[in-house]
From TrEMBL:
Signal peptide: none annotated. It comes from Candidatus Protoclostridium stercorigallinarum. Gene3D superfamilies: Hypothetical protein af1432. The keyword Membrane applies. The chain crosses the membrane at residues 15-38, 44-71, 106-122, 129-148, 168-189, 201-221, 227-248. The keyword Membrane applies. SMART domains: HDc. This is HDIG domain-containing protein. Residues 280-435 form the HD/PDEase domain. It comes from the Bacteria.
Length: 492
């Protein structure tokens, strides 16, 4: 079992892919800058070669600095290349969008574009902050450079004549808003749980930008400017927010990302796979709901992701759909294992982990959820069938033939669900679960998993395991409470 800390080690393959992704997106950004400068055309007052050099240096500085910072900060994002790649794509998309939309007017700068997209994709708001800041600053540098090189020609697009200085300051201020808002909006969205919430925050950002624009124009006593370009400022906020709602699901699907919004959607009981589970294996479904309640509370207690814990717990036993009546919670008196050999029983029970992974992938669930199906039993033995086989064969039995062939937990969520899964079943099987007996049971379950090496590849500490135990102890009474007896034997 490894100590629980937040420092992540990268292997050469991960760093190589991260660097390659960064270079590819950087090249796209360089070409975008060159195309933008070319479209600016005759206004450019310096050698075009210098523009190329500037574009390369600017892009290398920002993209290279971003990669270096993330490596130094030991962010998980390189550990999971899918997230890093999606962030780079979102950042580069927002950068290119801002570059070319400024050909129409710099007032269309979309301060909340990157933030609205990246924050919804992010599992760590720290990473969202960094990417938003880098993209916004890079855009601002390009626009200011263009303004200098074109001797103010670009700003004539939004006005002209004696008001050019005002227009220049308006664009600079609006761009600066993009930097600040784009960087700090993750703080406003730190508790983001829905796409609607991100839309509302994006619209609030737009409202703030519009208000500042109006105040600046009024400070210059230029009502005509307010009336003429008010709609541009509004569009600069509204369009990107709407656009992001189409972009985020696409990025989630392409890169198989897990976001808070997607996890909440996966726990909707109307999802096809959950409907199947509730209909075809109601006992397993109720068990999964109870495990999900335990897992969510435990994840909160140790500072892990409660949304992922709940979603993974909902689906951890979906593999039982292949043979639902071979599992005790779905049986109504008759046990089909009584009529078959223990090795056959073991194979049927063991199969539900791999079958669960297959079903999760078939129904389009993300890897972070699907992997729990093959990790929540690890390599634990199936004691009932092992003991039965020993009785039938005079003890000449290999325990590996009666053990799960899955993967031991590789993350804290899988470890939590392994403990909660066994705990829920064991507590429910007790005739009279009291505090002392439940506590002893939980200690034995955790100690057994540690002794069997189930957490050797998992970044969960002994302290966190004890926190999980205490959390289940405090929660079990609410799930397995007694009811008041009424005359006639009825309960309520």
């Amino acid at each position: 079992m490894r100590p629980s800390h937040r420092i992540h080690k990268y292997d050469r393959k991960q760093l190589l892919f991260a660097a390659l992704d960064t270079v590819i997106c950087g090249i796209v950004a360089v070409f975008a800058i060159m195309i933008k400068l070319y479209l600016t055309g005759p206004a450019i007052s310096v050698n075009f070669a210098l523009c190329v050099i500037y574009a390369v240096i600017l892009t290398a500085s920002f993209y290279g600095g971003l990669l270096l910072f993330i490596m130094i900060s030991r962010s998980f994002i390189i550990k999971n290349n899918r997230y890093y790649r999606s962030f780079l794509v979102a950042m580069t998309f927002a950068f290119v969008y801002r570059l070319f939309i400024s050909l129409i007017s710099p007032l269309l700068m979309a301060p909340g574009l990157t933030a609205t997209i990246i924050v919804q994709l992010s599992r760590k708001k720290h990473d969202a902050f960094v990417f938003n800041l880098v993209e916004s600053c890079m855009t601002l540098c390009v626009l200011l450079y263009e303004a200098i090189m074109t001797e103010g020609a670009v700003f004539m697009l939004i006005g002209g004549g004696a008001g050019a200085d005002l227009h220049l300051w308006l664009v600079i201020v609006i761009s600066a808003i993009g930097v600040s808002v784009g960087a700090f909006i993750p703080l406003a969205l730190r508790n983001n749980t829905s796409r609607l919430h991100s839309v509302l925050v994006g619209l609030l950002v737009t409202a703030a930008s519009v208000l500042l624009y109006v105040l600046m124009c009024l400070a210059y006593s230029d009502i005509s400017l307010v009336l003429s370009y008010f709609w541009l400022v509004v569009i600069s906020g509204v369009v990107p927010v709407v656009l992001s709602q189409f972009a985020v699901p696409v990025l989630e699907k392409v890169f198989d990302l897990v976001t808070d919004s997607r996890l909440i959607e996966l726990t909707d009981t109307r999802r096809p796979l959950l409907r199947r589970l509730a209909t075809e294996a109601p006992g397993t479904y109720n068990h999964s709901v109870a495990v999900a309640n335990f897992a969510e509370m435990c994840a909160n207690a140790i500072g892990d992701d409660p949304y992922l814990a709940r979603a993974a717990a909902y689906y951890h036993d979906v593999g039982k759909l292949s043979n639902p009546f071979y599992f005790a919670e779905n049986q109504a008196g008759y046990n089909p294992h009584d009529d078959i050999l223990p090795e056959v029983s073991a194979e049927i029970i063991r199969k539900h982990t791999t079958e669960g992974y297959r079903l999760c992938k078939e129904y389009g669930l993300p890897e972070e959820v699907a992997c729990v199906t093959v990790q929540h039993h690890g390599t634990l033995p199936m004691a009932v069938f092992y003991e039965r086989a020993k009785r039938l064969t005079d003890g000449e039995v290999d325990i590996r033939d009666y053990s799960y062939h899955g993967t031991c937990p590789t993350n804290r969520i899988a470890a939590i669900i392994m403990i909660c899964d066994s705990s829920e079943a064991a507590i429910r099987a007790m005739d009279h679960p009291d505090g002392e007996r439940v506590d002893r049971l939980l200690r034995n379950i955790i100690a057994d998993r540690i002794a069997r090496g189930q957490f050797d590849n998992c970044p969960i500490s002994m302290m966190e395991l004890d926190t999980v135990r205490q959390t289940i102890m405090s929660a079990y009474g609410g799930l397995f409470h007694t009811r008041i007896k009424y005359p006639g034997g009825e309960r309520s």
